[in-house]
Backbone:
């Protein structure tokens, strides 16, 4: 099996994007979901009745598709789902910064790592770019998708 | 250094208040700040003298700046400005350093010589460790956590959760 530069880059991109989401989702799931609810409320963008359902669903999306991407399983679909999430995060953060909404905690990595809103925005923009690239190209030969398609 | 004085946890509200909320918190924990600045503050405004707040120090081991912030708060407590100092720490979580601690003390009109002397003495380790041990004994592992008349709530609970528990306790009194 001859590996191309694209194969190796895809693996790297999968590890970065998939890894970040796996960790982020896991950190939210091991903490009380009320923590993430408080984070969502800060952004003043989600209707109150939706806050709890969103706080329960988003971490599972993060960890499931994060792990899928790490493994290279349903790579393009996983990258697509995470791109949509990232686009919404970018929107929320950008809106928060523009409207000077006091965002105490971005909700990215829980108590482990505190990011300023602009730092979270920069990170999410980078991740979004990588996820878009993963959506555009065929899966890497090193991925689970490649093994399953044999 | 051995603690050679009697310590009582900072409290706010009347001793005979029907509801007591014990707050286990970490000054470097972002969710603790969210809870303190939002839900807890709203509880205080809504219930007034019906609720007594008790503060317990629970800095997490991986928050390297937390313990110094708790010590600073205890130094403010010596001059009866604990609760205002606590709010200033939570509002300025990005700046948990000696310079900021002194600035907060100055803003609140504390005796700076006495405050800085307290910071230098480093005498509150055992107080903080005792609170951490108390949290562990109760099965509280993360922050923030709240003990409302014996019932544990963990995480940055919204005001509605506090209201539900408090209203139930007030009815039961």
Residues:
């Amino acid at each position: 099996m001859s590996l191309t530069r694209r194969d190796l880059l895809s693996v790297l991109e999968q590890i970065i994007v998939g890894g970040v989401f796996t960790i982020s989702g896991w950190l939210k799931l091991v903490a009380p979901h009320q923590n993430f609810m408080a984070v969502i409320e800060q952004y003043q963008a989600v209707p109150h009745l939706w806050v709890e359902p969103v706080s329960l669903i988003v971490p599972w999306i993060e960890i499931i598709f994060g792990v899928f991407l790490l493994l290279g399983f349903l790579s393009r679909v996983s990258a697509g789902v995470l791109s949509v999430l990232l686009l919404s995060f970018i929107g929320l953060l950008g809106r928060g910064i523009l409207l000077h909404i006091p965002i105490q905690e971005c909700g990215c990595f829980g108590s482990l790592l505190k990011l300023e809103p602009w730092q979270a925005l920069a990170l999410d923009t980078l991740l979004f770019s990588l996820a878009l690239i993963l959506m555009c190209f065929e899966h890497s030969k090193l991925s689970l998708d490649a093994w399953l398609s044999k | 250094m051995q603690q050679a004085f009697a310590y009582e946890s900072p409290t706010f509200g009347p001793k005979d208040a029907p509801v007591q909320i014990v707050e286990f918190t970490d000054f470097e924990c972002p969710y603790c700040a969210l809870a303190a600045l939002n839900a807890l503050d709203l509880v205080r405004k809504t219930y007034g003298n019906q609720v007594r707040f008790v503060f317990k120090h629970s800095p997490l081991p991986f928050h390297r700046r937390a313990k110094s912030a708790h010590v600073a708060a205890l130094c403010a407590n010596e001059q009866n400005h604990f609760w205002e100092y606590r709010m200033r720490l939570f509002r300025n979580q990005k700046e948990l350093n000696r310079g900021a601690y002194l600035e907060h003390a100055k803003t609140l009109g504390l005796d700076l010589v006495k405050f800085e002397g307290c910071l230098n003495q480093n005498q509150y380790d055992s107080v903080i460790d005792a609170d951490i041990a108390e949290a562990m004994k109760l099965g509280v592992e993360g922050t923030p956590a709240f003990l409302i008349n014996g019932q544990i709530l963990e995480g940055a609970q919204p005001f509605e959760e506090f209201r539900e528990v408090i209203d139930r306790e007030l009815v039961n009194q």
